[in-house]
Design a protein that fits this description.
Elements (H helix, E strand, L loop, with lengths): L1 H20 L27 H36 L7 H18 L8 H18 L15
Helix pairs in contact: 2-3
Length: 150
Amino acid sequence: MVNAIYYMIDTPVTYVREKFVEPNQKKYPWYHQQFRRVPTIDECYTDDVVCYVEANSQFCRDKLVDDEIVYILRSRFEQCAFYHGEDKHVCDDLRNIYEEAATNWFIKYGDMGVVINVKHAYMKQKHRMIWERRHGPVGSGMKTKATKAI
């Protein structure tokens, strides 16, 4: 008798869940919105405004993600340094990871001013590549005069 009452209540609920609820649920395991990757600015035509706007939106989202990554790494290092106090060498791994992330962030987004967009970042990357081709990696000093080919 108890099983009959249980199945009378459970069967419609199970049917609705399996036929309507589960097929309409999103199947990804993460809880933040995932955007599809769009063509980057170097893949857009010069007169394609829609492609430019999509690339700029993706660039802004990527910048926000990179900002949060650097913020989290800095917080972890600061918390470690605060917790260990005088034993700063315990947090050297976190410090190196944070400094590398901050350097990479500055290479990509630094010195771009207040209004930042994908075209400015692309030009910055292009100018950096030209500089490195002519003078060597940034921060290593300029190349000396090229030797003559024999």
